[in-house]
Structures are given as C-alpha cells and as structure tokens.
Specification:
Layout lengths: L1 E7 L3 E8 L4 E9 L7 E6 L2 E6 L5 H12 L15 E6 L10 E2 L2 H9 L8 H14 L5 E5 L9 H4 L6 H6 L8 H15 L7 E7 L3 E7 L2 E5 L20 H10 L4 H10 L2 H6 L5 H9 L3 H25 L4 E5 H6 L1 H8 L11 H6 L5 E2 L8 E4 L4 H25 L1
Parallel strand pairs: 1-6, 6-8, 9-12, 12-14
Antiparallel strand pairs: 1-2, 2-3, 3-4, 4-5, 7-8, 9-10, 10-11, 13-14
Helix pairs in contact: 1-3, 6-15, 10-11, 11-13
C-alpha cells in the first residue's frame, strides 16, 4: 500500500510518499512560496534531489505539481496517480470532536472548519490541502490526523483553565495541546528502545524545535502538556512567547497603545528566541552569535534551557516520577549544548548525561544518560509523517476490508 502524506501550510505543501510493503519513503519534498513569483518545488528520491522554480498560484496547482514530479519520467517513482492507495493529511486542530485520526467525510470537513477560530493560522490551510487533494484523487480514501487528538486523554483537572466555567461550556476554552503526532510517535519509539511495554513507562517527551512542547506521558497516554488553547502557551519558542502574565496584554494595550490583534501578532511572531536575541528565531544562528560574544543571544539560550527544565520538573511532578526523558525535533535532536544545559537542572531527578555520548548524538537515535543515571535520557528523532502514514494505512485498510465484505455479502 502506497500512502501520500500532505502537510499544507499557508504557502507550502510538504509531502512524502510511503511504500509500506517495502517500508521505504519513495519520495519527499516541498512546494514552497505558493502564490509568490519565486514559488518552487524541492523533490527528493533515492536517485537524488532537484530544486526548480515553478509558477504555483494556489494549493490545487501545488498538488498538481507534486503529482507531476511523482510521475516524472526522470525523477518520478510512480506511473499513475491510481498507484496511490490513500492520502493522509496533517490537521492542526480537531477540538474536542476528534480523539483519534479519522476518515475524511463532508461531516468531518465541517467539524474541522468549526475549529478554525481555535487555529486560524493553520486549519484554513489544512482544509485547502484537503479540498485540493479530494479534487485530485476522487474516490481515494483521505484521512485526517490531528495534532490535538493525542492530548484528548488529559484529565479535566489538567485541561481546564481557572476562569468562569461558562467559557468552557459556551466556547470550549481549554487546553488542547499540539505536536501530538510527534509526541505519540516518539513515545512509542521510546518504549521500543527501552524494550518495555509502553503501558509500564512514565516518560517526558521534549519536542524542541521552532515550536516547543514538553509532554507528560503515562501508559502511552498524554496526561499533561505545555501548549494550551493555542500554540502560544507554554515554552519559549522560535517566535512565540510561551507563558506570560495575562496582565501583560492589558498593560501593553494601555502603555504602548496596541490593539489586541497587534499584541497577538507580537506574541506569535516577534517574541521567543527572536524577541530576546534580536537576531534570529533559529537556535543555530543564536548559538553562533552567542559564541561571538552577543550577550542577548546568550541570554536567549539560557532562558530557553531554564524554561524547558522547569516544565520537565512540572511533568515529573504530574507523573509522580519519571523513567525516561526523550529529546526530539530540530533542537532536541541536534543541539548537545541545549540538552546539556537543560539536564544541568535535573540532578534532583537523577537524570544525568554522559557528555561524550551527548556530544556525539546529532540527529540520531541515542541514549545519552550516564551509567549511574536513575532516569534514562534519550535522543529520539521524530517522524510525524510516518505516524500519519501508519494511521492512514490502518484506516484505509479497514475501509477496504469492509467494502470487500459488503461485495462478498
């Protein structure tokens, strides 16, 4: 079974084509700068990578370009779109409607659309990708995999905010959490590495990238997580502030004469690493500048590590102890410096790292804890696309089985 995975943003389509029989990624790439003069496709297969400028006005055209390159005589991997068995879509917000991945129907699309106010920067573009894909592949199963669904196991005491209960009843104001697909994949992979049933493991997954989530997982279920109603809550990120006193919003509206929309934009796009460093939202560039003596870049690094370690402590308290801490995503997988700085604050947990192991673990599956560490510390590369593909294959396979039974009966 061949599964196409699509992750559609405002001006991009990221894609991967999986062959589950051979357990390989046949092709992957990105269509970028959709609607701009400099739009292009980056397409990669086992034979190499190509980057080409292509005029792309919208997501429908973008998906057409993806199919063209998947079938390209020189750079393609299939001969016809019918070779694709199903399409899996990353959808950021499913609200309380979706506790797991689901087959896309008109009703499902309507419910995703209802969640747009909860994720106005993401869900409209996810929907654009779904609508484009349904036009391109009529009759092929399409599956939605939600970033929020993994966190629907949070207990009420964890997901509710201490504001009037009517706001939850009327407007569903609550913690939803994000990066759930990544956290679910890493939690399953971590249990495999430990060779323990996931039902027996207390773990903390640190998804540290441009977006940041720290997640407490017990028995394979998310029990608390750092992001909230929106991705702004929680940790300091690339451009997002993370937790701030809500009074800051009121104060800035008066002192700086800013509108709510302006403040929301600042908290989303001008804060975090970028806001403190004044240089970049990219941790690699910030580390370079810090090494050259930039004080604010050094401060940004210290604030990031400090806040992650605080959230790990919170998760450890929620779990009443922890067996393993797993670092993942761009910073978590590739920055020995940040992992070391974070773990400096975790001696009380008995989470000790081996500096040699830590320094050599760059983007690879590794244990970096020392021999006398009471808590295992791992680096586990995430693979959200593979998780999306696996869910899509499972749902499409069950659908095919039901249809076969109906035909036989």
């Amino acid at each position: 079974m061949r599964i196409l995975v699509l992750n559609c943003g405002s001006s991009s389509i990221k894609y991967q084509l999986f062959d589950f029989e051979k357990d390989v990624v046949m092709a992957q790439g990105t269509v970028a700068k959709i609607g701009e003069p400099a739009s292009y496709i980056r397409h990669e297969t086992a034979s190499g990578r190509i980057d080409r400028k292509v005029p792309i006005l919208n997501h429908v055209q973008g998906l057409n370009v993806v199919i063209q390159y998947l079938m390209d005589p020189e750079h393609g991997v299939i001969h016809d779109p019918s070779e694709i068995s199903a399409v899996g879509h990353r959808v950021v917000h499913g609200g309380e409607s979706f506790t797991s991945s689901t087959l896309i129907t008109e009703e499902v699309i309507d419910k995703i659309r209802e969640c747009v106010p909860l994720a106005p920067l993401h869900n409209p573009h996810n929907l654009a990708g779904i609508e484009a894909s349904r036009k391109m592949f009529p009759g092929i199963p399409q599956v939605a995999v939600f970033d929020t669904s993994f966190h629907q196991t949070l207990p009420e005491k964890a997901f509710l905010y201490p504001i009037p209960y009517e706001f939850y009843e009327k407007y569903k104001v609550r913690k939803y959490g994000f990066h759930g697909t990544s956290c679910r994949y890493v939690s399953q992979k971590t249990a495999e590495i430990l060779r323990r049933p996931i039902s027996e493991v207390k773990m903390i997954v640190c998804h540290l990238g441009n977006g940041v989530t720290v997640d407490a997982i017990a028995g394979g279920k998310s029990v608390d997580t750092s992001m909230g109603l929106t991705p702004v809550e929680g940790l300091m990120m690339g451009t997002r502030s993370g937790d701030v006193d809500p009074g800051v919003i009121y104060y800035l509206s008066k002192a700086a004469n800013l509108t709510l929309d302006e403040i929301y934009d600042i908290l989303n796009t001008k804060s975090g690493l970028l806001g403190i460093s004044g240089v970049s939202n990219d941790m690699r560039e910030i580390i370079k500048q810090a090494d050259s003596g930039n004080r604010r870049c050094r401060l940004a690094i210290e604030m990031f590590a400090y806040r992650v370690s605080k959230y790990i402590g919170t998760c450890a308290a929620v779990l009443d102890g922890v067996d393993v801490i797993a670092f993942t995503a761009g910073i978590g997988e590739n920055s020995p410096l940040l992992r070391s700085m974070i773990c400096e604050h975790l001696d009380y947990l008995g989470a000790l790292i081996d500096n040699g192991k830590n320094n050599s673990a760059i983007g690879s599956e590794s244990e970096i804890s020392s021999g006398d560490s009471r808590v295992k510390v791992l680096v586990v590369p995430t693979d959200e696309e593979k998780m999306i593909a696996a869910d899509t294959m499972e749902i499409a396979s069950k659908l095919a089985e039901r249809e076969a039974l109906l035909r036989a009966g």
